[in-house]
Design goal:
The complex is a heterodimer of chains A (389) and B (241). Chain A is of the alpha+beta class. Chain A has helices at 15-18, 63-68, 76-80, 87-102, 108-137, 142-162, 182-206, 210-216, 224-229, 235-239, 246-249, 270-294, 353-358, 361-365, 370-380, 384-388; strands at residues 23-27, 39-45, 48-55, 171-172, 175-176, 320-328, 331-339, 345-351. Chain B is α/β, with parallel strands linked by helices and 241 residues long. In chain B, α2 (28-38) runs antiparallel to α6 (149-164) and α3 (49-58) crosses α6. Mean pLDDT of chain B is 81; it is low at 217-222. The chains are: A alpha+beta (389), B alpha/beta (241). The interface between A and B is large, with 38 and 38 residues.
Chain lengths: 389, 241
């Protein structure tokens, strides 16, 4: 049987196809691949994006306003809910800001515990982000299953030390809430030993995957200049070749004691962002290994401020301002505090990396197809709790 | 809809006797409800932090598939269950109600987390809706911030118990000509209009509060804040006036 012959085949030069009009599509806010409640107004020419306008505010929870009506310690649990993938990093940033404001010293062991927790959080974040990125690519839930298997192991550690899986509320001004027991330390060591094997498995599935390469390479290229001018930080900037990592630049806490490298990308496309995250995880494991080896014994809380948790309203830092920043897994997370000498901060501002990294979304998406916009958004790695705070 | 056990007309002794011989007796309702509760399709849509725990529940360790509810649908037209996972802001509330209206009957709602129940930790925020049950009926409330995955599993099984107890003929969604459209709130100058849907939710009256809790607040007298410094001292009563 011969194949059916079409009466007329359309050529690209046909006037019927040439005469197109722009079409507006609304993506979100309940769209599953917008990572929460984020909305994009996309104008399309055929399937190509002509303009893209983000609409935010669907998860605006008055974070700063609530914090300004609250004692300093009272906002600590709220910082967990900023970027709900990595609550430990958020706590770290806030604790640093307040410690700078009130000039609180942190014991040696607590510094190590903080670094260990922050790096574990980075593993949790990057592994989930890669899972979700593949989810957006169409590998429905299979990479997420691998990613969440590892995530659960780390969350077990968080639960054991902090009492909660996600919202840890673990750091205090001048230390951490509880000491690491030997059992927990053993468990972390076990995770650190087993993680490279998982990463090899994960990379074996993904890195050379043909579909992943075709979909991600040369898509959403962020040039070096734009990354610097727009204030992009975190893995996204490093994928564009910007050598900026607060752990090296600011050397907060005790990061100057560890030996690790900063992976940098060359092109700045989605694929580079994926690879930078994988390499960062490997570097985090190096930091964890060194920290676990060097961790000293001793108190985990500054004894002067140990009673603070029971009477948070009595904690009144001197007048002044402070800015504490950490290299959160998504970028530079900063907390700006102004104190007027009372128990509440006069001004509390969050420099949210998700929000600032998102500002280049339109530049990245222009000229690409609609399906690519979803991947680009996934590779920027936003979390709506932090974006809207 | 109330939670009531489905009473079978067949005597239980006879039932077990027959089961030994390999004969199973069940009513049509039993089979119908068994089918419905064993394949709940939730709506795939996350609002905030709790959505991550929802995903964790669907993943390998907690495995929501054991309860037949693993198939998350991105379209409300194909979903039976709406898991409201996270804070509902006033900007988002109209979309949530609209999504609920788009779901086909019978439909169920689980509110996951303190935020969607009553505002949770963000209740002081001017932009946060103090409970989604003001606009849509809710079947199961799951407290927690966020609830553990086990809690979500408990919520699903609790919903299954509720489905088991429903009678086909008496259910409102089975009646002819049913049209359940919940009015979608609109943005007004001071928050949403209307403030709540009176068919679904009403503010508690003072008398009802008194019925439940008595008179907790002494009128005309100001209560002092508890002295936090005296915590741990057995001689001092904390929170006394």
């Amino acid at each position: 049987m011969s194949p059916p012959v079409l009466e007329k085949t359309f050529q690209a030069s046909d006037p019927v196809l040439q005469d197109t009009e722009t079409f507006e599509v609304n993506l979100g806010p309940q769209h599953p691949s917008t990572h929460g409640v984020f909305r994009m107004n996309v104008k399309l020419e055929g399937e190509t994006i002509v303009s893209l306008k983000p609409v935010m505010g669907y998860l605006h929870r008055n974070h700063e306003q609530i914090a300004e009506n609250m004692s300093y310690l009272g906002s600590m649990p709220y910082t967990d809910r900023l970027d709900y993938f990595n609550s430990m990093s958020n706590n770290f940033g806030y604790a640093l800001a307040v410690e700078r404001l009130a000039k609180i010293d942190v014991p040696e062991r607590a510094q190590y515990v903080r670094v260990i927790m922050a790096e574990l959080t980075r593993l949790v974040n990057h592994v989930s982000v890669i899972g979700f990125l593949l989810n957006d690519l169409g590998a429905f839930f299979t990479p997420v299953l691998y990613a969440f298997r590892e995530r659960e192991k780390i969350l077990d550690v968080f639960e054991e030390v902090a009492g909660s899986r996600m919202m840890c509320n673990y750091l205090r001004f001048g230390g951490v809430k509880r000491d690491l027991t030997p059992a927990v330390t053993e468990r972390i060591k076990k995770i650190v030993r087993g993680f490279p094997k998982f990463l090899d498995e994960f990379e074996g599935l993904l890195t050379r995957n043909e579909i992943l390469c075709i979909r991600c390479q040369k898509v959403g290229v962020l040039p070096y200049d734009l990354a610097v001018n727009a204030g992009i930080t975190g893995p996204m900037a490093r994928a564009s070749g910007v050598n900026y990592d607060l752990r090296k630049v600011d050397r907060y806490s005790i990061y100057d004691r560890f030996k690790f490298k900063i992976p940098l990308g060359k092109i700045g496309d989605v694929y580079d962002r994926y690879l930078v995250r994988i390499l960062e995880m490997r570097e985090s494991l190096k930091i964890l290994e060194q920290a676990l080896k060097e961790i000293p014994a001793g108190p985990v809380m500054n004894p002067k401020f140990a009673a603070l948790a029971k009477a948070p309203r009595n904690f009144k830092p001197p007048k002044g301002e402070a800015y504490g920043r950490v290299e959160a897994p998504k970028g530079e997370l900063g907390f700006y505090l102004v104190s007027d000498g009372t128990a509440q901060p006069w001004r509390y501002h969050v420099r949210a990396p998700s929000l600032i990294n998102l500002t280049v979304l339109e530049d990245l998406c222009l000229g690409h197809k609609v399906a690519d916009a979803v991947i680009i958004l996934g590779s920027i790695d936003i979390v709506l709790g932090e974006l809207d705070h | 809809m109330t939670l009531n056990q489905n009473l079978s007309t067949v005597e239980s002794g006879l039932k077990s006797e027959l089961r030994k011989k390999g004969i199973v007796i069940a009513t049509l309702e039993d089979f119908y409800n068994w089918g419905r509760r064993s394949s709940i399709w939730p709506l795939q849509f996350g609002l905030a932090c709790c959505a991550i725990e929802m995903i964790a529940t669907a993943c390998a360790r907690y495995d929501l598939a054991r309860f037949g509810a693993e198939l998350f649908r991105a379209s409300p037209r194909q979903a039976d269950l709406m898991i409201i996972s996270g804070t509902v802001t006033k900007k988002m509330a109209p979309q949530v109600v609209r999504l609920y209206n788009q779901m086909p009957e019978p439909k169920y709602v689980i509110t996951m987390g303190a935020c969607s129940i009553a505002g949770g930790p963000f209740i002081d925020g001017t932009n946060v809706l103090k409970g989604i049950d003001r606009y849509i009926p809710v079947d199961v409330h799951l407290p927690g911030c966020p609830p553990r995955p086990e809690a979500l599993l408990w919520g699903i099984t609790e919903l299954q118990r509720k489905i088991d107890g429903q009678e086909i003929e008496k259910n409102e969604w089975y009646q002819r000509g049913l049209k359940r459209e919940f009015p979608i709130p609109e943005f007004g100058p001071k928050g949403l209009i209307p403030k709540f849907n009176p068919d679904v939710w009403r503010p508690e009256t003072a008398s009802r509060r008194r019925e439940r809790y008595g008179d907790p607040i002494l009128l005309g007298k100001k209560t002092a804040a508890p002295k936090f410094e005296t915590f741990g001292d057995p001689n001092v009563k904390v929170g006394t006036v």
